[in-house]
Each structure stands twice: as C-alpha cells, then as structure tokens.
Automatic annotation (TrEMBL):
Protein's organism: Austrofundulus limnaeus
SMART domains for this protein: SH3 (SM00326)
Protein name, UniProt field: Epidermal growth factor receptor kinase substrate 8-like protein 3
Keyword Cytoplasm in annotation: no
InterPro entries in the cross-refs: EPS8-like (IPR039801), EPS8_2nd (IPR055093), SAM/pointed_sf (IPR013761), SAM_3 (IPR041418), SH3-like_dom_sf (IPR036028), SH3_domain (IPR001452)
Region (Disordered): 94-199
Compositionally biased tracts (Pro residues): 136-158
Database matches in Pfam families: EPS8_2nd, SAM_3, SH3_2
PROSITE patterns: SH3
Gene behind the chain: LOC106532018
Length: 332
C-alpha cells in the first residue's frame, strides 16, 4: 500500500474538490456538481477502506466552506452521509465555525506532483468577482483543463480534461449523448405532500443553517421526502433537513422506549446519570469511563478543547451532543 503521506495528499485534494464543487454548484451541467459529489464520495470510500483508520480525521486543511457543507448535506446519500460523519470534526465543521484561535490549522496550497498549481485556486481574489458575474460556468472550469489560451499549459491537467469536457460542450453546443451518473436510491421527487407526523429514532446535531437538531423520541412533521435528506418541522415551528435514517413512522410503537427510560442529561445529573447518558449515545467504553465520573454541570461546562484532551477520538462528537443538550435546556 502507498505510504500515509500519499493518502494524506489525496485526502487534501478531495477536500479541495468538495470546496470547488460548492463554488460550481448550479453553474455546471452534464455532469453537474452533485454528480461529481457522488464520484468523490466513491473515491473517498475506497481510500478510507484502504488507509489507516486514524488518518482521515487528521486532515484538517483545507476546511470545508459553508456552501460546500450545504451541497454535501443536500446531496449525500444515507451511506455517504455516514461515511462523511465518520471522518471527524475537520470534515464536518464549516470553516466559518472553526475556532479562530486554533493555531493547529496548517495552510494548504493545491499542487500536483509536477509542481503545477491551478491559478484560480491559488489567487482567488482576482477571478472570484468576474466569475460571480458570469452566468457561464466556463471561467470556473478553466484552471483544471488548462485550455489553449494559457501559455505553456502544464501536461498535468490533461487526465481531468476528459471528465470536465462534457460540461464545456454543454456550454457551446448540444452534447451528442448526456452523461448519466450511477443511479442513487430514493431520488424520486414528490412535489407536494401533506405534513405528517414522524418520530425521531436517533439524535442528530445540525451542522449548518439548513439542517435542524432533533432528539430521539421527538415527534416532528415531515414536510418533504423527495431527497435523501428529509425536511421536517419541530414543535417550535423550526424547519430544516435531517438524514432519513434517523426517522421512523410515528404510529410504529417504540418498544425500547416502553421498556426503559431514555437517559437525560441536565445540570443536576449525577455521575451515574452522566454515565448512562454517554452509554445511550453510543460512545466507546473508554469515553464512558473517562467522562462518566463527572457530574452534569462539570460535563456541560467543558470546552471542546478540554473534551478532546480527555478523549482525543470522540471529544468533538461529545461536544456537539452537549450543544444539543444546552440548546434544549435554554429553550426549556
């Protein structure tokens, strides 16, 4: 197998690709940005299954942009979303929400093995304004294929040109045959539907303004199920998207909820209750052992950095679960 350094460089480029697709969403067709998203997830899944399990969460740079997070949230299938969430904080927290005082964020410049760097990615300010005014996606695609107007084009972009060529042809002329992505289940669109009650079976923490935080046992209204992510409305009237695999029919009896009380974390929780809450959320035994000795106020008062210091592997996930608890305590 290749060394970790080569895997790491590929992960950096995949994150750069996701960010670029966030910029190009709605500007390219045949294939579209969502089509490329599924292709990158396929590559990502292959790489994750062949590299060290500890490597992907260490790939911090480049942080994903908010528009990239939004695109992935809307288009990722259930399996792709599970893969995405398993990669850790650096793949799930948008750049605008990353701690500004974090000095561990390395800088990253997209560069290929022959030294070629895409001009528009390394010097974003000049081309960004005209690109936003141009309805055509052609300017945004120019760096990768390195077309003829650029003097002395590097041979490196040539392999990717065959992938982007259908999008260029769609701008200038009708393509002879449209490229079709692999089929993804549950993509059929139902234009209108009456809101119907549906139960949350697994906690979900929102990561951007389009998503909504829901808790296990909560009953919400289903507004739209035309995509992999379903749109729901909670009892407070807030609307947002959640993965469809965290929901189940409201009329389906929840046997586990009838036979046991779901552990709840509050500012009055004692260590045994904190331990039960951590176990219910599915955290590992080492995390439960390290944090289960704390009281509710102590655990809720810990910062993200403190949690990651105690539990390097799951500290970030504990922190986001605590944000949902704090939010519910504030609303209450």
């Amino acid at each position: 197998m290749p060394p970790d350094e080569e895997f790491a460089e590929c992960f950096h480029k995949i994150k750069s690709g996701f960010n670029l697709l966030g910029e190009l969403n709605g500007k390219i067709n045949d294939p579209s940005a969502p089509d490329f998203v599924h292709s990158l997830f396929a590559v990502l899944n292959f790489m994750v299954s062949h590299c060290s399990e500890a490597l992907p969460p260490t790939i911090v740079a480049p942080l994903l942009s908010p528009q990239c997070i939004r695109l992935l949230s809307e288009e990722a299938s259930t399996e792709e979303d599970q893969l995405w969430q398993s990669l850790g904080d650096a793949w799930n927290i948008p750049s605008t929400q990353w701690p500004e005082d974090d000095e561990d964020i390395p800088t990253y410049t997209l560069e290929f093995s022959d030294g070629w760097q895409p001009p528009q990615l390394t010097a974003t300010p000049p081309p960004s304004h005209p690109a936003s005014r141009q309805p055509s996606p052609q300017p945004a695609l120019s760096p990768r294929p390195a077309p003829s107007p650029r003097p002395a084009p590097s041979p490196r972009p040539a392999p990717s040109q065959k992938h982007l060529q259908p999008a260029e042809h769609s701008v200038n002329q009708q393509p002879p045959a449209k490229w079709k992505p692999p089929p993804h289940p549950q993509k059929t669109r139902s234009n209108e539907m009456k809101p119907q009650p549906i139960r949350v079976k697994t906690d979900f923490i929102s990561r951007n303004h389009r998503e909504i935080t829901v808790q296990r046992g909560e009953v919400v209204e289903l507004l739209d199920k035309s995509k992999q992510w379903w749109k729901v409305r909670n009892s407070s009237g807030e609307e947002g998207y959640v993965p469809n695999n965290v929901l189940e029919a409201a009329d389906k009896p929840p046997p586990d909820m009838q036979t046991e009380v779901i552990p709840v974390l509050t500012r009055r929780s004692k260590p045994p209750e904190v331990k039960a809450w951590l176990e219910d959320k599915g955290f590992s035994q080492i995390t439960v052992r390290c944090l289960g000795v704390l009281s509710g106020p102590l655990l809720l008062g810990m910062s993200r950095e403190e949690l990651k210091m105690v539990c390097p592997e799951e500290g970030g996930r504990v922190f986001f679960q605590l944000q949902a608890v704090k939010s519910s305590l504030t609303d209450g």
